[in-house]
Amino acid sequence: MLDNTSHTIMNRWPAQFPDRIQLYSFPTPNGVKVSIMLEETGLPYEAHKVTLSDSDVKSTEFLSLNPNNKIPAIIDPDGPDGEPLGLFESGAILLYLAEKTGKFIGRNTGDKHRITQWLMFQMGGVGPMFGQLGYFHKFAGREIEDPRPRERYVNEAKRLLNVLNQQLDGQDWIAGDYSIADIAIAPWLRGLEYYGTKEVVGWDSYANVAAYLDRFLQRPAVQKGLKTPARD
């Protein structure tokens, strides 16, 4: 059984409040999903900054909680049946917190499955494709002369944006009511500005998506979650 008071990760990131959910993260599109969800639900938590450097994410301490060496991860001292639970993968954490609180997961079983399909759409499509788009436009991939990889991810990003634009026609949120699907998708839309790719994907042609992101960013919990944990 996981011991939330003496877990190896706490040798590097000690808990000041071990009775709260411990969040190990960094404010990336994946990382802020969980901090936003925690703010939206009002669950008490303690945030620990885990940078993307190998010295953090590949440390023995972090790997003891997430062997995949990616943020975010959590420890909930009050997990199922009152036992501590450690989790990694942002989508899994969102589902867990939604089920724990009964919030942002829909009003019935059908809603839950419709929301989950859009969560998986982000996990399998928007996140990986936008991430690769960023790699080939902002990071080391921009030095590759062959234009085909860059074109592939530009075109795929456009396709995914069109799917979202159509889905948002006539509704404020991706699956009806505000949900974990929105908490998963919208931070990646915001990431297009960081990558400097809004122009190349034709952002202004997706009016529903642009308005959707504006609505999302107006939420107080979102604004706080976007800055948690602080970069500095």
From TrEMBL:
PROSITE patterns: GST_CTER, GST_NTER. The keyword Transferase applies. CDD domains: GST_C_Ure2p_like, GST_N_Ure2p_like. Residues 108-232 form the GST C-terminal domain. The keyword Transferase applies. It comes from the Bacteria. GO terms for molecular function: transferase activity. This is Glutathione S-transferase. It comes from Ruegeria profundi. The lineage of its organism: Bacteria, Pseudomonadati, Pseudomonadota, Alphaproteobacteria, Rhodobacterales.
